Amino acid sequence: MRITAETVADGIREQLFAVSDIPGVLWTPADSSGPRPLVLIGHGGGQHKRGWEVVSRAFPYVTACGFAVAAIDAPGTGDRPEHPEIRRLVALIDEQEAAGEPFGPALTALYETVAAQLIPDWQATLDALQKLDSVGDSQPVGYYGLSAAGESGIRLVAAEPRITAAVLGLVACDWLLDAAARITIPVEYLLQWDDEGNPRDSVMRLFDALGSAEKTLHANRGGHFRIPPFEIDSSIRFFARHLGHAGVPSSL
Amino acid sequence: MRITAETVADGIREQLFAVSDIPGVLWTPADSSGPRPLVLIGHGGGQHKRGWEVVSRAFPYVTACGFAVAAIDAPGTGDRPEHPEIRRLVALIDEQEAAGEPFGPALTALYETVAAQLIPDWQATLDALQKLDSVGDSQPVGYYGLSAAGESGIRLVAAEPRITAAVLGLVACDWLLDAAARITIPVEYLLQWDDEGNPRDSVMRLFDALGSAEKTLHANRGGHFRIPPFEIDSSIRFFARHLGHAGVPSSL
Q1: CA-nearest residue of chain A to B240?
Q2: Is residue A52 in some structural domain?
């Protein structure tokens, strides 16, 4: 792992890094050192590792819980090179959406293409992060990912035993039912009640399939992107409960 | 209102009271005075005002948020006299359950009979509580009630504008859809995923019917009575968000 840039602001150290050709970012408390629980945050479709939905979770996880938090760019996004096949599939899906047609096999192909690279990338990143003094390999690991990062997240969590708690959701993908059934860790699962692209029946079918003894569905009114802010707070408490926290902040 | 007994333990003042013939209990912080937000807690079927599911919520609401919390016995329960019609209907329902038969009109009749007395009782109790210095009539009011207290709670919340936030759920009662649609306050709504007596589709139909702009469904694995303890914590934060809290405790 190469650290390519480092800044400190508002009590948070931000380190940009690269694990071979995977660009990532690690946030840790600026004023402490030593191993700590780690949360990996996946970003949504068309976003990148420092997008608002990542940062809005990462910063409070660091400041309220003392966690390390990491994000990487998915293939074809952020600081990664163009990915011709992903670009072709996204353009095809955009055309189908504009024409009001169903996505058909293009959507599955897109997710398969992304996952074939992204899942091993996450695992290589986790290997590298656990060699850092500020993370270590003896601390629990969580994953947070919704929408496209929920799709890849179900695959990742099903495949990666180091991850012991996950916030997932906003996906309706029947092809993931088998992967969901292999998940046995605690899961907080988000559903937007009026998410037209992810019908609630399909989302709940995935929740139902999860093999976890502890799983909680949080359904809120509104469309795909309208997750209420109090769900960030809820995810903080979920991870604090399952990963512990490095400090004992006054806000918990 | 007559205060019939008062004790203090673990920082909580418990006052037993009667509002005409309605027996109730009020919990407030032992070490403070003056008006504060009030949470009314309804108890489940066959339980009473000081049952475990009431006390397990009431005590942390008082200690973590500084709220006043009140509960009353539903007709035919706790310190209230036997109610022959309720007793007859409960016996009939028990017989039907033992025989594996559907409850039919007896269940609706039971709920109607209870509600005809319980809703005005709650309103008279709220009138009396708001005259106390330790509650006052200028503070917000919440309601917490699941199962039978979710059934009556939907009726109460739909009828009582002084209640401005509610935790409801564990009920599948299609006859309440119109009442649910009249509810516009923030609601946290609980569903047990494997609750055989309250099929999830019916419970979600009620959630869907709620007219509230802010409504959150929390579904957890397990049967009717197996609500995970972290949902108590979630309800504390829900009420703190919507009712404010009298102090600023370190646990929030």
Answers
A1: A230
A2: yes
**Searching chain A, which residue's CA lies closest to the CA of residue B194?**
A208
Using H for helix, E for strand and C for coil, what is the string for A28-73?
EECCCCCCCCEEEECCCCCCCCCCHHHHHHHHHHHHHHCCEEEEEC
**Pick from B212, B216, B237: CB nearest A218:** B216
Q: What is the ipTM of this complex?
A: 0.85
Query: Residue B40 and residue A105: Cα distance in Å, rounded?
Result: 53
Beta carbon pairs, A and B, within 8 Å: 52
The beta-carbon neighbor of A216 closest among B208, B219, B237 is B219
CATH number of the domain enclosing B122: 3.40.50.1820
Nearest CA in chain A to B236: A234
pLDDT digits (tens, 9 = 90+) for B18-68: 999 999 999 999 998 899 999 999 999 989 999 999 999 999 999 999 999
The pLDDT tens digits for A49-70 are 999 999 999 999 999 999 999 9
Is B53 inside a domain boundary?
Answer: yes
- Chain A residues with CB under 8 Å of a chain B CB are 191, 193, 207-208, 212-221, 228, 230, 233-234, 237, 241, 250-252
Q: Are A148 and A74 in contact (CB under 8 A)?
A: yes
Give how far B252 is from chain A: nearest CA, Å: 6
Structural domain contains residue B75: yes
pLDDT digits (tens, 9 = 90+) for A98-143: 998 888 899 999 999 999 999 999 999 999 999 999 999 999 999 9
Range of the domain at A202: 2-80+119-243
Q: Which two tokens stand for residue A78?
A: 């952020």
B239 domain residue, yes or no: yes
From A152, A132, A159, A158, select the one nearest A68 (Cα to Cα): A132
Longest dimension (CA), chain B: 53
pLDDT-wise least confident of A115-119, A208-212, B198-202, B246-250: B246-250
Domain total in chain A: 1
